[in-house]
Amino acid sequence: MDEHTPLPGASVLWAGRLVEKPEAPAFEFQSSIMVDKRLALQDIQGSRAHVLMLGNQGILSGDHVAALDAELARIALELEAGTLPIDPGAEDVHSFIEGLLTQRLGDTGRMVHAGRSRNDQVATDLRLYLKEEIPKICGVLKETILSLLDQAETHVETLMPGYTHLQRAQPVTLGYHLTAWCTGLERDLGRFTDALERLDECPLGAGALAGSGLPLDREATARALRFSAPTLNAMDSVADRDFALELAGAAAITMTHLSRFCEDLVLWASEEFKFISLADAWSTGSSIMPQKKNPDFAELIRGKAGRTTGNLVCLLTMMKGIPYAYNKDLQEDKEALFDSLDTVRWCLGIFRGMMCTAVFNQERMAGALVGGFLEATDAAEYLVQKGLPFRTAHETAALIVRDCLAQGQGSISERTLEELKERSPLFEEDIFKALTPAACVAARKGLGGPAPEAVRRQIGTLRAKVSP
Ligand code: ARG
Questions:
Q1: What's the pTM?
Q2: What is residue 335's predicted lDDT score, i.e. its pLDDT?
Q3: Which residues, including other chains, have CB under 8 Å from residue 248's CB and lie 6 or more apart?
Q4: What is the pLDDT of residue 1?
Q5: Rounded CA gap, 95 and 8, in Å?
């Protein structure tokens, strides 16, 4: 932009004190309208509550209140109808709305800011916005959990390998694996609802940092805006943004979960695993390799997790050096937080759509249970149940695995009972039944285990927590 272009048309709220105004590029640098314009309706809501309170407290006359309230309502309607464009030259959304009131109502418009500051205004607007936005994120989270739980229930008996170190470890089921994902997502839901409860206090009336000498009724504005209470300390109200940190944290953790689930999916969709077939509509092709079907959606969710981590680090770093109370650094809170919340909501919806249409290849999953000695732990536990110390049982099973490998055998069940007895006389004929993948899974029926009835209990618990 040309350095000498004149100041943008919108008048600033602080014009009285300063002889010179920032030139256009500098003004643009400190303006936040392009980011905080999404708070316009909340700003109007806050102003209407403030104006009514000023009227009830005898600070504004009934006529002034009526005029301001009607104009604020009109501005909201115009914004919603799209007939009132946001002025990109305004300093921020608060200046924009107050500027409009003054343009349209003259001196009456100039009365609206009594007893408040943009510092308590922005803190109020942001909390009002989050009180609408977070339940939407929680809604998508719940839908995602519930549809994954439906898939988990369908697959409580679908055997597959469980992995540690990406090496085949023990037989589990697909239902168990999906329920593990849901258990993490349910805690994410808890983090969002918990943060929402804590931020449900109204900063309006905190002023710039120290409240106001005017006889404000902060209880009334808090009630009118449906907050559970006014904030306790005015300075804290305008200086802190810990609610933004909590939510950015909740978003980053949720995205980290989604990223890991997507990593599972990318592996499962590979020719090497072939555990899952993503719908064509949830895959993309290659511009050069005609055969390709790529899990781009899963990859992109995994990639976007980086943004939410970045936003959290950005907010923490932005906050850490700010002396109390408000400093302009805090204006940076919104871009990072909005991006994190937009990202997590979008990704949850995409993840859910992709998962709902995915087809699991049960034969490939069952096939992957052959050959990795996933039953070795169960062989050891068989011996423990016959009285052998676990460490001895572990060594015995390991020696049997070695015997198998030496003879090119892929599973302990390929040994004869006599061969097994050479390693431990405790083995009996029933060992072979105990080592099938289904038996290994069925045996782990304790709390939290992969046995079908145990997983059904977990699914029931999660459904009860998530369902309205
Ligand atoms: N646009 C500002 C923000 O987002 C509003 C508060 C400005 N306050 C001030 N004293 N400059 O933080």
A1: 0.93
A2: 97
A3: 308, 311, 312, 315, 336, 337, 340
A4: 37
A5: 13
Are residue 68 and residue 160 in the same domain, yes or no? no
Per-residue model confidence (pLDDT) at position 325? 93
**32 Cβ inside 6 Å of ligand 1:** yes
Are residues 280 and 207 part of one domain? yes
The helix-helix angle for 93-105 and 62-81 (nearest 10°) equals 120
Out of 118, 120, 337, 338, mutate this one to test ligand 1's pocket (max ligand atoms within 8 Å of CB): namely: 118
Domain count, the chain: 3
Give 315 Cα–ligand 1 centroid separation in angstroms: 16
What confidence tens digit (pLDDT) does each residue in 326-347 have?
999 999 999 999 999 999 999 9
Which parts of the chain have pLDDT scores under 50?
Answer: 1-10
**277 catalytic per annotation:** no
Kindly name the residue from 286, 411, 424, 467 that is annotated as catalytic.
Answer: 286
The verdict on 382 and 432 lying in the same domain is: yes
| 345 CA distance to ligand 1 middle (Å) | 27
The 8-class DSSP code of residue 359 comes to E
What's the token pair of residue 416? Answer: 């004869």
356-383 pLDDT per residue, tens: 999 999 999 999 999 889 999 999 999 9
Encoded tokens for 189: 């839901």
196: domain range? Answer: 125-367
Ligand 1 atom closest to the Cα of residue 93 is 1
Amino acid 257: pLDDT: 98
> Is 119 near ligand 1, meaning CB less than 6 Å away?
yes
Cα angle value 347/348/354 (rounded, 5°):
85
If you write DSSP's letter for every residue of 47-59 in order, what string do you get?
HHHHHHHHHHTTS
Tell me how far the alpha carbon of residue 43 lies from the centroid of ligand 1, in angstroms. Answer: 13
CA distance linking residue 103 with residue 240, whole number of Å: 33
Q: What is the CATH number of the domain that holds 401?
A: 1.10.40.30
How far apart, in Å, are the Cα atoms of 420 and each of 171, 335, 461?
21, 65, 41
* Residue 38 and residue 149 in one domain: no
The conformation of residue 425, written as its DSSP 8-state character, comes to T
Residue 84 lies in a domain: yes
- Is 94 noted as a catalytic residue in this protein? no
pLDDT given for residue 11 in this prediction: 67
